[in-house]
Design goal:
The protein is mostly helical and 277 residues long. Helix content is 73%, strand content 0%.
Amino acid sequence: MITGGHYVEVLRLAKQMQGSKAMGYASIHKQLVKETGYIGTFYRGFWPWGVIQTVKGLPVLFVNTEVKHILTTKTEVDCRLVEPLAGVSGGIAQAFFVCPTQKLKVVAVADAKIGEMGFLDAVREVVKKQGIGSLYDGILAMCTRRGLDWCIRFTVSARVKEWFVQRRRGRGEGEELGLAELMGCGMVGGAVSAITHPIDCIITNAQKPAVGDGRVKRDPVSVAVRIYREAGWGGFGRGLGAKVLDNSYHTMWMYGIGTFVYEAVRGFTGEGGGGRE
């Protein structure tokens, strides 16, 4: 998040929130810089909402790992379904965790004044205008999108990992994958998961500020209709380039470093057995 991930998300959110006239990323960048300067643009909405979200991977990894453990040890679920089911569970858990901070981050990207407010002042401002329930605007779409997103990320990453292992076997090498190979697995999984982007556009537009906030419908169907009226089918693809980059970049680190550290800890505690599951 600190080394560029947050900035890519800022560009994506700004792109998704545009109405009938869409600006290019360069124009969006110039506009944001004009409002808050270079540093302010790079970290717009990062404090405190982005900082809080730096731990958003924990509910995914915890629930994903726990569900896989339960399914493989206490049920007879087909092994091919374990990874997808665990991914969906982790994604839904993350949605409930991240929705309030994502709402406030979207508002901060849309409104520089909110971004400059302190933690409590920003929350009060949003709740005053839109109500306490607004912190969970878009939760249904977010559960759907993040469930599918992490299902795809983990499943595709695992399949790519299997491909790497098979290639190593064919060359007569060990099955241990290096950090670069694991990061490659995550990069591919993240890029493929960007197919959920249309749902992400619905979430962002459900959470963005709007004239007459109290009367604006924010359920998935109403938001989808509003996007179509404003920008046609192309409105559901706005920010797709940034989304592919964002997902692949984050999953590259998360799957690569996460798996590498996990395997190192298992090996250190004597649980690894020299192989990978």
